């Protein structure tokens, strides 16, 4: 429920919003790192506290993205429909670029697409979705990039696929997955 003069939410995680236009009362999403201001649009925000990174994808309309607690327009980008912008780990705003909207909204249908994503990022997402921990043979593997489509598959199928791509073996011990190299 909103107060009469405010439409604000606080987010840690990922959410899709469909906002009714109201010129007098903008809709504001606060994350630990950013503030997203909207007048009327559809957009997705990914803002996991662990990453200190915010990604905003606009489906329809326009939104403003700026670092939290900054009140000047120099530290702001306007994102239009079909674009993505990111506030990175260092607090830098990246200019909006065109993107494949469906890729970013696939999670709404329990489909997960990673295109050239670091393995560490893929495992972080799996950790959130399946409440499991991962151990890699070496930290350096987390930076390896993979492209994979994980369409609502059981975790064992996902682990088999990642093992095949990375040439790993794995063992599940409770809620921990230990990957080893396949020598």
From TrEMBL:
Protein name: FecR protein domain-containing protein
Gene Ontology molecular-function annotations: sigma factor antagonist activity
FecR protein domain sequence ranges: 5-63
Protein source organism: marine sediment metagenome
Domain Protein FecR C-terminal per the UniProt entry, residue ranges: 112-178
InterPro entries per the UniProt record, alphabetical: FecR, FecR_C, Ferrdict_sens_TM
PANTHER family in alphabetical order: PERIPLASMIC SIGNAL SENSOR AND SIGMA FACTOR ACTIVATOR FECR-RELATED (PTHR30273), PROTEIN FECR (PTHR30273:SF2)
Coiled-coil stretches: none
């Amino acid at each position: 429920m909103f107060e009469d003069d405010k439409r604000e939410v606080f987010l840690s995680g990922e959410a899709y919003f469909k906002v009714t236009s109201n010129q007098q009362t903008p809709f504001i999403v606060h994350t630990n790192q950013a503030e997203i201001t909207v007048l009327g649009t559809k957009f997705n925000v990914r803002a996991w506290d662990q990453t200190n990174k915010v990604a905003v994808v606009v489906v329809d309309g326009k939104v403003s993205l700026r670092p939290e607690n900054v009140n000047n327009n120099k530290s702001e980008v306007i994102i239009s429909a079909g674009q993505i912008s990111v506030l990175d780990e260092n607090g830098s705003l990246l200019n909006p670029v065109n993107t494949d909207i469906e890729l970013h909204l696939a999670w709404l249908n329990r489909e997960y697409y990673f295109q050239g994503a670091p393995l560490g990022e893929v495992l972080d997402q799996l950790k959130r979705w399946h409440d499991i921990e991962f151990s890699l043979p070496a930290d350096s593997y987390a930076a390896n990039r993979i492209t994979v489509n994980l369409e609502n598959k059981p975790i064992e199928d996902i682990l088999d696929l990642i093992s095949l791509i990375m040439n790993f073996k794995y063992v599940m011990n409770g809620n921990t997955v230990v990957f080893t190299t396949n020598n």
